[in-house]
């Protein structure tokens, strides 16, 4: 028999949607950053090491493109290393902050505005072949995005009872993917490959500048929407009883008690989730970091194909986020994540078989090949699988703490993911250098996905939350 709640638990969809504007800004910036910056670095390192652009190197000695990927990996990893240090710090600080506008909002606003001002200068310095300026601005953006990211993500569990967080996480992740879609659409029309393959005198700075400017403007708008619609202190007071009821119904081995050390069972659960998360982020970030270069330098296709890949993966991810909470209610979060990892592995196995088509694309500006259409299916399958994983993993981590430590445990979650993203670009870059083969990318990700599946299924318990009735229909859209 289902246990009847002492207090009615109610997911406020309108409020959750508005909180999603925080994640909208995060994925918007990350999509632009991950799609453009590794190629910027590849081109600028080619000039430093070989005295010619990466396009000229691709035409004359394409093997040398792989030789610079470990340097690209180091720069991308340094940013992630800073995040590994800063995310837990800002999470812990925001837990202890008390201001009239809340404990998370000061960090969100400061991080947003500094990042938004600095972000458009990255392509500016790249266009002028200023590597020091470009890398310095990348560091500034990443540092202030860390100030923004942890508090922004912690905002959802701050005011959402534990049994409802998987569904709420689905909503804010969908909002995040809408943010990424803005950058993706721009990348289809403003082709990075056209800029990279052009002669120096024919390169137009606005081709690469516009996506960064649009990302900055939309980030600021999303932060302002969040600020004017989410009154942290008022909502926290309003939600006190529901949050207490959520603690009682939490899907954990032993109840959380801040007056005592974390129980052994909960500690094992936390470490197992973080360990598996480290492995699947190593896999997923490897693909995210190098897919742009994989398309331009290995498949010899136009960069807009990468953006269409992102749309295919994004649409499938939205579907995954929309249904992941309901799936978790049926089979539990553990098996939802395990299914997601299995689906992702299937997609990566298919990717291992992909090779350049060798057929010149119609109207190709620089003789690029047609894009292998099977990769669109791969991205859709992978996007759906990883949506199941990401939707349930963060709620599992913050399930293991009280409301007083959400920022700290959000920091643990991101420390695991960022440490993976620190290691994986360098490791894979070195493997590219050793193997001389772009097919190393999907094989590498396949192996790590299998390892994460083994760790997760072997060590994490499937503890299902006691079922609660959620309010639906017009009542769920009541104002605050």
Distance between the termini: 32 Å
CATH homologous superfamily grouping: MFS general substrate transporter like domains
- For the record, the CATH architecture stands as Up-down Bundle
| Count of discrete structural domains | 1
CATH topology: Growth Hormone, Chain: A
Strand percent estimate:
under 5%
Uncertain residue ranges: 467-480
Radius of gyration: 22 Å
SS content category: mainly alpha
Shape: globular
CATH class: Mainly Alpha
The helix/strand series, from N terminus to C terminus, equals: HHHHHHHHHHHHHHHHHH
Helical content (DSSP H or I, runs of 4+)? over 70%
Largest sheet: none
Q: Number of helix segments? A: 18
* Average of pLDDT: 84
Extended strand count:
0
SSE blueprint and pairings:
Blueprint: H1 13-50, H2 54-60, H3 63-67, H4 69-96, H5 105-118, H6 121-127, H7 131-158, H8 165-189, H9 192-197, H10 205-229, H11 232-238, H12 240-248, H13 264-298, H14 304-331, H15 333-351, H16 374-398, H17 406-435, H18 440-459
Helix pairs in contact: 1-4, 1-7, 1-8, 1-10, 1-13, 4-7, 4-17, 5-7, 5-10, 6-7, 6-10, 7-17, 8-10, 8-14, 8-16, 13-16, 13-17, 13-18, 14-15, 14-16, 15-16, 15-18
